[in-house]
Structures
1.
Amino acid sequence: MSPARNAGHQARPPDFSPREFRASLGMFATGVTIVTARTASGELAGLTASSFNSVSLDPPLVLWSLAQAAGSMAAFANGQHYAINVLAADQQALAERFAARDVDRWQGVEFVEGVSGAPLLTGCVATFECFNRSQYTEGDHVIFVGEVERCSRRAAASPLLYHGGRFYTEHPLQGSQADPSAPQAPDDRFVGSYLGYLLGQANHAVYRDFENAITAQGLTHIAWRVLAVLHDAALSPDEPAGVAIGQLAHDVLAKQPTVTKLVQRMAEEGLVALHADAADQRRTLVLATDTGQRIAAALIAQAREQETTLLARWSPREAETLKRHLQRLAQGR
């Protein structure tokens, strides 16, 4: 059955770029799922998806969507069953792994087989075992509607959240509550209280050990930021990877001519690939190569480990509040 359309009328052409559209969609906070299946030949398939929603209570229906170009399309389109695993707050690493390319997503992952053979991941807050009821092609995605045959949940568990391109292990607004600790007396000394100086000290504390890891890869700080931005852009298998040079310059806090020369050199070193736009150099797309992705992934793992050490004495709420306020400061709010 084809979806109903508004016959005789057409939508106005969009006045925004794909990147702007994606950023706007990111303002809708969602949970995070991993959709899993076992093919007829016994192979495991799985991917991270936030495009999950309920459709009907009677019969029990849910939906999710997958890019037509996704490598796992055949596994889900041709199979009769799949499972939707809603991730818990402590499963961010699992979400990132099942969103990454060129990795063994299933290595060491604990799961049990569902009633129809689809893998049910251990530790999730909820699972939905679905019959592959129907599929609808819309634009560059296929919408899957699943009829739920079994479902389960962990009532006391907290879900992993996704908003604005970031994962949250607590609700973002929880950190807005007042800190119960007693306020400290103000420091009248300029050096000890000026925001710019404090941020500089904090930046040094965060980067002083990590700088060695960046240097060991033969990278400058700007080159490292380029790879980090491209790594994030490639996280979703449902979207085309690549960032325009103009946007990349904005994201890495550098001037466009500087970034243009840098990415050209990084392309010669095999770290990035360039898809030139003859009409406007700022719109040249930059993509990380497999080598660039591996280096970025290794550095990101080191950065996360160092961050965990630095924030070991902070509660998760305090750490999330700190990041949220720094984001607001960076955005001029």
2.
Amino acid sequence: MNGNLKIFSGSSNKKLTEDICKNLNLYPGDAMVKTFSDGESRIEINENVRGMDVFAVQSLSIPGNHHIMELLIMIDALKRASAKRVTAVIPYYGYARQDRKVNPRTPISAKLVADLLTTAGAHRILTVDLHAGQIQGFFNIPVDNLFAMPVLLEYIKGRIDKDIVVVSPDAGGVERARAFAKRLDASIAIIDKRRPGPNVSEVMNIIGDVGGRNALIVDDIVDTAGTMTQAVEALMRNGAAKVFGCTTHAVLSGNAIDKINGSSMSELIVTDTIRPNERTAACRKIVVKSIAHLLAEAIIRIHEETSVSSLFV
């Protein structure tokens, strides 16, 4: 590694950026990231980046619109400072659930965010567990979509007994559940769910045998925790011994923490793609595993122009 690599952080997840830099034996880049009194984002790069390979780390988490704008301005600042290449490292890609037209006259916001990032000057995107894989095709620049599964599995294998059934919270998550089940040598079950409105879910029934077994619900995003907690109760009613949750992106908006605390879930295992807030950190049922080493490895491989493929497992 030479001195041409620099890593800068937005305000959304500075701790993750610091951990990435520790893995690479680097210091985070010197940048001023503030907000003017009228709410506009203010970014200034305080060191030379001319001709350098620069990585801007920013999760598009709550408040998503502010963090998106902050990232766009940082990319523009780096581009105008003559950085050779700017890679946007987006551990959590916001608006990913708006990846298609579900009703007439609705936007495809995930594509709009992709266009904004490209127009701002990003040369490459590094992200983790995109909600929909086809979002990679929304970009005309390279996209590396890492998977947090190895990080989560490392903890799960040492925490949960062997008699595991991996549960998909809906039909769309079956492929993800199958991937976990293959590596845990476990069977799978599926929650048959009906969703009457946005952020409102209703569990109907369970496909598969969960009686007397430890159930592991795997999902990529837990937002209001309605789907997760309803699935937990449905599994317990069907005879599951214990129920664990597992997700990459812990959005945990609204009263999600209260739902988790009030549920029969033994643990919810998450990563730090989104910075844990005080309530998340204080919740005894939530275990946070860091993906800093995974992102650090991807960054150094991109910088050295070596293969990133082995990280896609």
3.
Amino acid sequence: MKSHFHLLQLDIYFHDYKFALLCFITAFVITLITIPPIISLINKYRLYDTPNARKEHKTPIPTMGGIAILAGMMTGLFLWFPFTNEVPQVSFFFAISVLFGLGIMDDLKDLSAKYKFAIQLGLAALIALSGIRITSFDGLFGIEQLPVSAQYTFTILAIVGITNAFNLIDGIDGLAGGIGFMSLVTLGIFLSMSGDVNTALIAFALAGGILAFLYFNFNPAKIFMGDTGSLLLGFVIAVLAIRLLQVNISAAAPVIQHAPLFILGIVLIPVFDTVRVFSTRIWNGKSPFEADKTHIHHLLTNKGYSHAFAAKLICFIHGFILIEVYWLKELRQELILLILLAFMTILTLVLRNIRYVTGKPATDPLAVQKINTAD
């Protein structure tokens, strides 16, 4: 059965998504039934995310919801995914196992950034060595095939950068999960359309787990995904995005025109926000890793808007970007890049000054909680 989506001019053949739907539903159900006992266990041992001056929540909240997300994802894949001993597949699942352990340790012990970066760099290098690499810019800035050294460099930077971007944007209830869910579904659909149906199953399995988690995470949150979940989410999205780039660049009839810019659109909000925040801190003479309240969601919550409003607004903007970057496919890549960067710059300025644009004071009815803006 075929369905035509007029808004995007896409033809979706639903029979190609049978196993994707099974992976999605299985992961959703397993995560949904796993989270309540995890919350009880965390409450028993008091493994909370404790509030402090730089965090948005005011009471201790159970964390490590990523355990349930991974449990749902892996159950779905164990039942429906065709596992092989191919190097890329073995490397990928080994990497997420190590990253999962790193996330648990970080949630429990609050590891140093240098230690986490070292492990992430090693895992990103493993993925690149396995064959999942950024091999071409597909004509962006006139660059086609990349030298091997550049392939490894850009791949490692992209994986580590996107992984940490999702980790850093996980600052309010429902935001990282909402953006991640939309990105994963987009990746799953376009990987399937590009012929890489097996890799698409990973996207749909994780999306199912994330959707179930969001039921407990939307404001007021009953549990956080923690680094256990956010590192996993960012890493999987990064690897799948690079894989989608690979299959489109190498295809005789690619599904996506200007694939590099489409991939950028999938991760644009967390990546742009991370680069902006790090650059601002460096400009002000601070360490880029010094935590503060300047991320995109803080631009709203610092003005008194609720977590729910901020998360929904940013997720809506993310959805608009996903559609926009596909609509602009006929333009030159350099022009698309300029439009995306201009859009995010203007968006940041609007959110930074939203009180003056809308005339709403910090005590607006939308502000169901007063945010402490102390660093």
4.
Amino acid sequence: MAKKILVTGGTGFIGSRLVNRLATGENEVRVLVRRTSDLTSLEECLDRITLVYGDVTSAESLEGLFTGVDEVYHSAGLTYMGNRVNPMLDKINVQGARNVLVESRKAGVKRVVHVSSITAVGIGSARKPLDESSPWNFDRLNLEYARTKHVAEKIVAEEVSKGLDCVIVVPAFVFGAGDVNFNAGRIIKDVYNRKMPFYPLGGVCIIDVEIVVDATIAAMQKGRTGERYIIGGDNVSFRELSQTIMKITGVHQSSLPLPLWAAHIISYLLNFSKNRNKISKLFNMSMFAVASEFLYFDSAKAKRELGMRYEPYEQSIRRTFEWYRDRNMLD
């Protein structure tokens, strides 16, 4: 029997790939969008989905939209790692999550999958990747994005205690075709354009967006209520990552390790430089502080319980680069 599925954040990177996948089946797929939403990422499947209009930040706009819905994928979120105060982080990531989860519970939605972030898990080390049971410690970096994703998971726990069937998936650093806003893909573009003369001393856990989609759907089908699942792959230092990107793109640049204390000095000096545009936009102190840590994670639980597959991270980097190159998006 066909199910009614509603997806929030369906125009985003992960959300759009999820919608495109769900729309290949027999289920009725609804996508929550604003009147002003850019639907470019959904062009391939617009004839197979139903658009419903609302805003996760407005509980009133969501009333009635979840009635009769069997499954909800909540992937709406604002990813902002900059230095400025951004009030939309709380509105979208915290209040938006609360609005969607409360409406889902009230409407009797059978199951919700909440898409979180590895910043809601914590900061590990090169020697000891974190898992789902690790205590949250990202507050030491004072990153508002991390705080809002952590609070959103607490809201999930509150709603589960009230009877909502909800599972959390936690994607790592996501590469892949379709990253039109250059989220993780920004580093590929900037290495290609020789805008990365130095690299931070930390590392990240890399995963392809299609594996994230597979695991997210699997979480809906067989994840355990109230549990979180880290969706990650290879743990890679930024030195290794930049070298891999240079190898795949065929573009080489001398790149030096940069400790955080030195980054502060360079960041200050760049304020007086005419060459600021020659340095990656990733070089802001908030983001560089995060990149100086080891966001290494253990995804054994997702492999064991969700059947998450593995592929070497180089394959995802190559696919992403070729997708950008074929669309002339790297200049």
